[in-house]
Each structure stands twice: as structure tokens, then as C-alpha cells.
Amino acid sequence: MMGIYDLDLQELPLFEGLKADEVEQFIQATEAKVKRYGKEVRILKAYEANSRIGIIVEGEALVIAEDRFGNETVGHRLERGALFGSTTAILPEYASPTAIEAVSDVLVLWVPYTSLIVAGPKLGRVHGIVMRNLLRAFCRKNVLMMQKLEVLSQKTLRERLILYLLQQAGRQKTDCVKVPGRVQLAKELECNRSALTREIGLMKEKGLVECGPDWMRLDEARLREER
Questions:
Q1: Could you give the strand order of the β-sheet that contains 42-44, starting from the edge strand earlier in sequence?
Q2: How far apart are CA 140 and CA 133, in angstroms?
Q3: pLDDT tens across 209-223, in order?
Q4: Of 30, 100, 81, 60, the residue nearest 180 (C-alpha)
Q5: Which of 75-79, 102-106, 137-141 has the highest mean pLDDT?
Q6: Which long-range contacts (C-beta less than 8 Å, at least 24 apart) are formed by 189-194?
Q7: How far is residue 64's CA from residue 84's CA, in Å, rounded to a whole number?
């Protein structure tokens, strides 16, 4: 496995509160492994048996829901520090309908769930800190799911886009929000790409939003005037 000091794993949310040597101790005790995936590779397939918790170390990936007929719905993005695969690792009897696909080259730290549980006596306080961080990550994941539902419950495409951008601004802690391309954004908002492009154009004409190649900024003052 490549050196953890080069990857700065201690900076990941899962290891918040730990030093680099304590992270190395955790890696050795749980036999966690780092693996690289190329762009558009399915890191985890829908309905696939899985016994490990994955953590994004580098790159970005997408959560994609797939039904039994092969129809896909794009969910939220996963960036550095994001966890996935925990549901199937903890509940092996559950066949998850979600897949994880690499948007770019992705580096994943895989932690075997069983090893994580039994490593407690060997790791002491390190284990307690990681488990605390894991619970916090589960809570953040629930928040993301609720925000997604809130966006999709909006009556109009404009309302969906505005709420999406407001959520992203809060998450990214900036009013100049990094956004995916139009195709991907349309999938995340579950709308037609042409309709999305048309709506963004109308909002730009009214001064409600500014756009760049990979960013958008809402003019909240103009939005209040519109209401």
C-alpha cells in the first residue's frame, strides 16, 4: 500500500482527531487497503455483495440508483473524505440498488467492516475516535438525502435550481458554487437538459444568477425582489 503520509489520510473526516502515526496504526490493525480506479469505472455495482466501507481519498465519484430494469437515476457527488458502501457492509442481507461510479481518477481506502469492529481492543482510544467519526458521517449522509428530497419536492425547475444552489453554497461555504456540467446537473435535478439550459438563460437575463464554465452564483437580493 502507498504511504499514508503521502496521502494525508489523517486529514480525512473519518480520522479527525488522530495523528498520522495513529492512522497508520488503524490501517495495520484493520488491514485496510488503498485502490485506484479510472474515470467512469464502477467502483461499487448495484446489488453487489460488499463487506467493506469505502472512503474517497482522491477524486470524485457519483452515487447512481439503479432499478431491476436497469434504469438509472443520478444522486449526489462524493468527494474527498466521503464514505460509501457502509449499508451493505453492515447489513450484508441488504442488496443495495445504488452504484458508485468514478467521475475522475479515484483513490479509495477500503476498510473491512468486520476488522473494524474486532479491532477495538487493539486500538483503544483510536478505535473510539474512528467510531465517533463514523457515526457523524452517517448523520451527514442522512442530511444529504433529506436535502435531495427537498430539492426534488419543489414545484418548478427554477425553485429546484435555486434551492440546489443555496444548499451547495452552504456546503461549499461560498456563494460562488462549483457545479457539474449541464448534463450532470440536469440528472441531479431530474429534469430535461434543454429545459435546464433554457431556465438558466432566463435567470441570467433577469440577473438572478451569474454563470461560468463550472460555477454559478445566485444574486439573492434580486431573488428577494422577484418574490
A1: 42-44, 98-102, 61-66, 72-78
A2: 11
A3: 999 989 999 998 888
A4: 60
A5: 102-106
A6: 189/151, 189/152, 189/157, 189/160, 189/161, 189/164, 190/73, 190/152, 191/157, 191/160
A7: 12
